[in-house]
Structures
1.
Amino acid sequence: MKILVTGSRGWCGVGIVKGLLERGHEVVGLDVSPVTAGYEDRPDYREIQGDVTDQYLLASLVQGCDAVVHAAVGIFQSRDAPDGTLDEGNIKSYDVTVTGTLYLLEAMRQNNVRQFVLLSSAAVVLDHIAGPNRTVKEYFLDAQTPLNFSSFYGLTKLLQERLAAFYARQYNMSVVALRLWWVVDGPTYRTKNGVPLAEDTFYLSPTGMLDRYDLGEICHLALQRPDIVYEIFYPVAGPHPERYFDVERVRRELGWQPRYTFEDVVRTR
């Protein structure tokens, strides 16, 4: 398959591109970052510097593709706006995350590209997890868990999901939404900030880890299911994910088994 991957230079995007190429796909990468060395000698990969809010660029890139994996997201620093104007950081985040998704789905519709994998987030149900002072509640998350969030980021990811669901049902597309939690580097056991997993204290959940290179396989497997109309999955590897997430469903429906389960991660803080 020929697949457009947005956010191809991001933390998740790098893992997705690598995984898809390893499984024989042709990939077109789109990212706001400058094109860098790494795949220039591969005939099956092309990288473009650009923005998902550029409708004309999206239309040209989608042409000839069989599917799209949407990993691009806008996260900008929020600033207080005492004069009552809208927060500039939130406006930029909305433009990239929500408006960019709309432009991408519309480009797909116009070019008859049916298959779409969306990198969503467990942030849309985060308040089921986070208690007072960022403590962890008892929880179990599946596709039927009611939406419950208090962050602007969670709102933008929800709107992404709703747009994708609308296009799937209205225009006969096939959409798989992956609600991610803690995407890490499996080979090095480090976070995106380079912190060893055992020492990191930012994330609330004692579980929910997923290797970023496993994402490529998950996307590949999702694209083998064009019969899906719209489905939500929690692709979580460990440790002990079955206590908190409906991981059996993603393994049963997509046939995914994680390479890294992180069962040996022991918190040191």
2.
Amino acid sequence: MKCRSVFWLLVVLSLLAALPAAGSEEAVLTVGDDKVSGDEILYLLSLELGGNDALAALRLKEMTEEERADFLERVSTALLFSRGAVLKGLHIDPKIAAQLRWNQVNLLANAYIASLEPRLTFGDNELKAAYEKNRQKYVRKGSARIRHIFVTSGEKGRSALLALLSGEDFYSVAGRLSEDSASSASGSETGWVEEGTLPESLDRLVFSAPLNTVLGPVEAGAGFYIFEVMERSEGRSLSFAEAKKLVASDLQKTVLSGEAASLRKRFPVILRPAALGNTPLH
């Protein structure tokens, strides 16, 4: 249990590296030239208690001197181990260095987003105005419950279709002939699919075919499909109440995109996807 606590504190210390120094506040713990303030200890304690600052303050107040000393000892052990890691050069190990870097990046990025909170919160009037302006965007697409058999050749597809038309049930034909392990294992049941998610040639037929009719083989992607539409739900516009969270999310994305665009003017961004393709895999 103590090993887990020390490991947890080591992770926390990588986050603390991104925080400002304790300043003039009296240090409650010193390890070499590392000084830890009471506020930092309170922060670590709040993390142990699920991020509840008020509970952490109450817990610290109720701690006996022995419990406080034990907590400080755990923090000092983590600091000692982090110093030991530096002495061994572990901080320059590529994986460790990347973890330290991106822990800090994520912490600061989240803090920056939190600083934008007033601009990311919208009242009902703003949300309704955005909803009315983009009402056509907020729709629930049509969906269909289907079952299918997938094969890699037209000949196999025709054999499957013939078996179905001869009276063999879909479940047994799928288990016997389908080359899609998922549909074979589930007895051909695909479940509900949303309009626009299937390959175009198949999608068009699924959302126009009569119900409970076996159709195919239809060539799509890497093979041929024999399918049956069992149920279908028509698409419709979402009400404001249904779309409210989506509208808020879209407005937040607009704010964040604008903020990123503004920062890009100050910090030019160069993307090199081709170079990424040459990255060696370990």
3.
Amino acid sequence: MIAAAALALVAAYPLSAWFPEPTDARVASLLGFLLAMVPAALFMAGILRAPLPPRLLGLIVVLGLALGFLAAYLEMPALAAPFKIAAAAAAGRLLGVHVPGPRWLAFMAGLVLLIDAWSVFFGPTKAIVEATPSLLEYLLVVFPSAGGSVGAALGVTDFVFLAFFTVGSAITGLRHRLGFTLMAASFPVSLGLAMGLERGLPALPLLGLAFLLANADLLASRGGTRRKPPSAPTPATGPTAPTGPIPPAGSTTPAVPTDSKK
């Protein structure tokens, strides 16, 4: 699934060039964004569900950013996108497993909403756009546009928080599947609002609201319950006892569970 989604994401860029270019550039950007966002979301979901150890996740972060930045430098957004998204998914997963509880996750949703809005309108993001716009090529995932031109973009950190809230929801008993779907769907909504207002808007405020919407009743009633880590198996006794070493606890970063109905 991961490889297929990554190939579909890369293929979305040349495929978008075959689309008739709409007369409205905003429509062209939105169509190209939607074409690439679907495989991008599936690609990220695959990384979040895979049983990957922490060291491998850390390696994905380092290599993903390095190769993503290199592809951006070479002006190859189709190759940069999967590398940057992979790095963001791995980073968000590494951070998400340390969430102490659901109410803390809700607090983080409100906090990033405010910080991202401040950064875009008054803070570092605004300063980068005005002073060194070329730096954005490395900090953004650039999506295609119908007709083949460069389209809209999302920050790498937007994908980090998508992964962070999804993994955090899974380990605290919240609705991680519904949350992931609504949070991913908030990206084109944010893009549509930005186009309608004809100005750049932060993506994390709607992402945070989507997380809260998916889990509002659970947070209000009981706040969710953090999942207990799986207990170590009881060593066998007698002649059938295993003689090999017991894997150390925490040797694999918990993946987003696939058997949950949430």
4.
Amino acid sequence: MNRIGILLASGCAGLALLAAAFGGVRSYRPAAAVHAAMTEPKKAAQPAADSSSTQDDNDEAVIRFVKNPEPIPLFMAHDLDGNVISTAAYKGKVVLVNFWATWCPPCREEIPELIKLQDKYKDQLQVLAISEDEAPAEALKAFARQAHINYPIMKVTAEIETDFGGVPALPTLFVINKDGAIVQKHVGFYPVAVYDREIRALAGMSVDAKIETFEDTGQIFLKNAKNATELPGVDLSKLTPAQKQVALKRMNSESCTCGCRLTLAQCRINDTACPTSRQIANKIVQEILSGKPSESPAKSDDDDSSTD
């Protein structure tokens, strides 16, 4: 694993957090779609805002949960002490499933927050940490002891990661309600107040925030990008309904060439700042409007998806 390349990818999370380890400067980086960079094993996240809980224009706290949640993938795994951990055992509690790594600066920065939350809401909450580290279990146990981690840690498997729809950046945290359904996903470091409000809302406790819902069109699981009728940074307003259907079909079948290994639609949702998917997607729109399709730089997975 090229750790240097991964740490460089974390950008502004870099030197300050590396020096601070567990502490460091506490900057608010709202959640968002993050560039997948799946040509690298993983990278530290640098998200921008999208469907996650935040503040509205009147500075009122807003909690956002998906209105069509999918159930948490059922799995059984052993924690670092050999105990069997089953997601099915935590129904009735709010669960935070945290994908992280010891080499990830924002992951280390949020550990004290998760420890405090687990202690504060021990009867309503269960944090589950899934480590992306390649280090042996004993090294992770030593890290956990030093950090005073009070929640189970498991090592990631390909099956677990696939079941959660892929984890292209770290940290990634899934929020699960008491019925065992995934209602939110956060990519990157968040202030503890964001998680605190969500936990209280899901646990049926009082919360000083407005609750809104949204349809998962790729914000939680990228596979649901196929249900999106709008894509960030892509102007579909000049297309007729039929043309829009053609455009979205192409964007869901043609691959982005930025190296993310996602479709154009998935990349636009996963990384709103990606210039490659934005350029290709808008080129598709212009081709459809002009009626003169030109050769697309995207790789087509469906030759029938081109326009007439």
